[in-house]
Write a structure and sequence with these properties.
Largest sheet: 7 strands, mixed
CATH class of the largest domain: Alpha Beta
């Protein structure tokens, strides 16, 4: 079972690294934070595509992730940039360090957490920990799915593969989700994830799990930020600086940690 798990995790990491298209995230964040070199922390850095791009732009960047498979690609990038530091750590249990100028919770991390916590509490905890990791006046960047109606996920799923292809070890597979149960009131989506694998060696197998995601509204997210001592300075509806409105699905938020704030 462990061998199948390792094979599956590497296959997913490889396809994420080689199939994900550039969605202009790095350019968007660079525009938000400016050109001055900063100390940046990215939580859930994955293969460090964003962290590496920011390090290449001259920032001192630390990336944290708990996926050993994804971090294989991150460590390769860190060898090229002495100002890119990669840590294999659980963002809920281990220290983030402190005094950062910028903390990034991007790439839809807030709505793709793997946690045994209550999902909404886990999201709030990340914002709390981000506040603790920032210097006074530091900036938090949030980049997450924030659709007006969650029914878009039900329409998109319909067993359409999220990932499909072959890795560099000859393992072929497809990953898809189905059976979504949407609660517009709680903003929770429950669904089934399935990956079907045809290994280069060994027998075919599949892995199935039942998952849940919570998609906060924009007002809900802003209220969490306020409670943690942040002031929201910028809200975009995507990576090109477009205004946020009911037709946008993505929210990109820049919030400043208040230098002194009393949160009751």
């Amino acid at each position: 079972m462990q061998q199948q798990k390792n094979l599956l995790e590497y296959w997913k990491a490889y396809l994420y690294e080689h199939q994900q298209e550039d969605n202009h995230t790095a350019a968007c964040i660079q525009q938000l934070i400016g050109d001055q070199p900063l100390r940046i922390l990215e939580i859930g850095c994955g293969s460090a595509r964003l962290s590496a791009a920011l390090a290449q732009a001259g920032h001192d960047v630390t990336g944290i992730d708990c996926s050993s498979a994804m971090l294989q690609f991150a460590f390769e990038k860190a060898e090229k940039y002495p100002n890119l530091h990669i840590k294999n750590a659980d963002a809920f249990l281990e220290s983030w360090g402190g005094n950062y100028d910028v903390v990034i919770l991007g790439d839809n991390l807030m709505c793709s957490l793997i946690t045994e916590w209550d999902y909404k509490q886990a999201q709030k905890q990340l914002i709390h920990r981000a506040g603790n990791a920032l210097r006074p006046g530091g900036k938090l960047i949030l980049d997450f799915d924030c659709p007006d109606h969650l029914s878009v996920y039900d329409a998109e799923q319909n067993r359409k593969p999220c990932l499909i292809g072959t890795d560099d070890r000859g393992n072929t597979g497809r990953h898809f989700v189905f059976g979504s149960l949407i609660n517009e009131k709680t903003r929770n989506v429950r669904f089934t994830s399935r990956t079907e694998m045809l290994p280069s060696k060994g027998n075919p197998f599949r892995a199935t799990s039942n998952d849940i995601r919570h998609f906060p509204t924009l007002s809900e997210m802003c209220s969490w930020l306020y409670r943690e001592g942040f002031t929201v300075e910028v809200i975009h509806g995507g990576h090109h600086g477009e205004p946020f409105d009911l037709h946008n699905r993505r929210a990109v938020i820049l919030a400043r940690k208040d230098e002194s704030a009393f949160i009751p």
